[in-house]
Amino acid sequence: MATIISGAPVPLFERLASGGTEPSAHLLDGAQLRQSVARELGRLLNTRSRLSAEAFLASEGTVLDYGLPDCSSRSLQSGPDRALIAALVRHAVTLFEPRLRNVNVQFSPPLNTALAQPVLLIDGELCLGQAPERVSFELAAGDETAQLRGADHG
Prior knowledge:
This is IraD/Gp25-like domain-containing protein. This protein is α+β, with helices and mostly antiparallel strands.
């Protein structure tokens, strides 16, 4: 008789890092899946691709292209630069984080007025079980990891 397994598989990198050997250690529940995606977004956005912005946007993504092109010469105060960075992030997430679908990336003003830089918002759908779940992640300039923003959207 077939058994229905509820959960999402743990990515290989996380399995290797944790050293977990139990079969149950290879499945993530909803909260664990959201945290796993947040960690992967942090890794992705803090890794530099070898490609230029234009070449990256035209690429289909190989393991050699993982990450984002260098955007250090871009200004977050410039509308066209923010639009380019958002397009690069959306393309990177679409290529390298398949657990997150229908991705939308945009900048928003910082919620904390002490911060001078806009916050990057990444919205998408996570599939866990039968129905997709809408989630949002935010990354402030200089952050090392993406944070779940507020509550998940259901």
